[in-house]
Fold this protein.
Amino acid sequence: QSIIAIVPAAGIGSRMGADKPKQYLMLGQQSILAHTLDVLLSHECIVQVIVALHPQDQYFKQLPQAKHPKLMQVIGGGERADSVLAALDHAMSINPCAWALVHDAARPCLRHEDINKLIGSLKQYPQGAILAAPVRDTMKRSDANGLITNTVERALLWHALTPQFFPIVALQHNLSKALAANVSITDEASAMEWAGVMPGLVSGRVDNIKVTHPDDLQLAALFMSQS
Ligand code: CTP
Ligand code: MG
């Protein structure tokens, strides 16, 4: 199966509050996005990596990976889903029969081990699957005043991670339909769910964090140093 990686990297990192988009902040020797791209570009099953960039991006061209033969750029959109769709449109023109492995630029601690696990789930989940982590804490539902109304069954709750792995044709179709219908789409699976598909859950490593707040930088650096 031919696999095209899609990397939404067009965000501005408002919660990080740094002087540049968080994917360009340094983590050890290189930027967060450079780490993420290295993991994907070095995987032998991934034939192409399409990265979606902000229209005013001034940093990408300085990355050592920018001219890698497997790498292509597209202009992203206003929301993460718009950026993913822009890359999917491009992927359709390369090979509509391929599978998309969509992975956040802001998750630099991804390991080949998890990519392999997700790709390996294709036989079990021909409709597509996502990496996810089982919820560990006891979960509470509250009312509007912040008072606990009940305890939610934890065994059935998961944190949705990336990569998320779907057939390009199906994902492009469902994502564009869902966006046109103004459905709130925060990951690829939600577009598939909206279309009636039940994606598989593949348990992933808990160190595959999304760098979101300033505190996450130290945590990501720690995880990165433990190879
Ligand atoms: N992303 C994107 N296009 C957008 C918004 C986000 O490609 N219009 C990307 C980000 O670059 C990031 C991933 O989607 O790699 C996950 O989004 P998030 O963590 O929310 O990043 P930001 O939107 O940049 O951060 P914030 O929400 O704090 O502004
Ligand atoms: Mg965001």
About this structure: Residues 11 surround magnesium ion (ligand 2) (CB under 6 Å). The helical segments are 32-41, 80-94, 112-120, 168-180, 188-194, 215-225. The two ends are 28 Å apart (CA to CA). The chain is about 30% helix and 25% strand.
